[in-house]
Amino acid sequence: MHYYRYSNPEISCWYKYLLFSYNIIFWLAGVAFLAAGLWAWSEKGVLSDLTKVTRLHGFDPVVLVLVVGGVMFVLGFTGCVGALRENICLLKFFCGAIVLIFTLELAAAVLAFLFQDWVRDRFKEFFENNIKSYRDDIDLQNLIDSLQKINHCCGAQGPDDWDLNIYFNCSTESKSREKCGVPFSCCVPDPAQKVVNTQCGYDIRAQKKNQWDNLIFTKGCIPALEAWLPRNIYIVAGAFIAISLLQIFGIFLARSLISDIEVVKAGHLF
Fold first, then answer.
1. CA torsion through residues 168, 174, 179, 184, sign
2. Are 218 and 212 in contact (CB under 8 A)?
3. What is the pLDDT of residues 144-179, one digit of tens each?
4. 173-204 pLDDT tens trace
5. Which of 157, 104, 169, 159 is nearest to 132 (CA)?
6. Which long-range contacts (CB under 8 A, 24 or more apart) does 80-84 make?
7. pTM for the structure as a whole
């Protein structure tokens, strides 16, 4: 007489440890983001006085770093623990969160394409509000300076937008030394200068506009970004596809591991 031995269902080690490796990277990145954000806040004295966060009228880049770091930390942690402990609840939370993020990203991309004028107006308002707060936060200041230097632009629609800032305003009531000027990041770089001249934008807008072209960037950052996007559409599309594939891969691993766990648990009932 022959006896047949049926193999018991097993949880795939490939899915389990691939998902763990996938998430440990995000968890460590989340820890790094949170550490960097908290260090930046401690340098600005925010941790000793949290009301400073509410007093800032512009955008604090550190908040974005902390939010992204927090999301990555939570998702990485639930994915790692869920994979190692074979916990269906944690894995379903991880999978659902990734699906939600992916859906929101896709919806945002579609809506941004369909309502380009609305997005442009909102971004203009956002940029102008941050111009007003340029001197209020060092991280915001560095972000605007980097944006202007990289894109060779000045202001939202042009250099005159810096009239919105009390330090660069051309009004007669202003006593600022930067009156009627622009930040140094608006200046056309001089190849002969090895040291950055942070006073190059002083009194620029007090001169005639036909003299600006040789001294500062006259294109606004919104038109500059609008011109940049079509030239780099393949890079943007490639980055979006790469991020989407990573998320889909994470969803696939989580769903596969959940299915294996459910099959094994169902097998133990018989």
1. negative
2. yes
3. 999 999 999 999 999 999 999 999 998 877 788 889
4. 778 888 999 999 999 988 877 888 889 999 99
5. 169
6. 80/20, 80/23, 80/24, 80/27, 82/19, 82/254, 83/16, 83/17, 83/19, 83/20, 83/23, 83/257, 84/16, 84/20
7. 0.81
| Residues ≥6 apart with Cβ < 8 Å to 31 | 69, 73
Candidates 65, 22, 69; CA nearest to 254 is: 22
β-bridge mates for residue 187, sequence order: 216
Task: Look up residue 48 and give its two tokens.
Answer: 């000793």
Q: Look up residue 132 and give its amino acid.
A: K
The pLDDT confidence band at residue 13, using thresholds 50, 70 and 90, is: confident
Q: What is the pLDDT of residue 269?
A: 52
Residue that is written with structure tokens 């080690």 in the block: 13
DSSP string, 102-133: HHHHHHHHHHHHHTHHHHHHHHHHHHHHHHHT
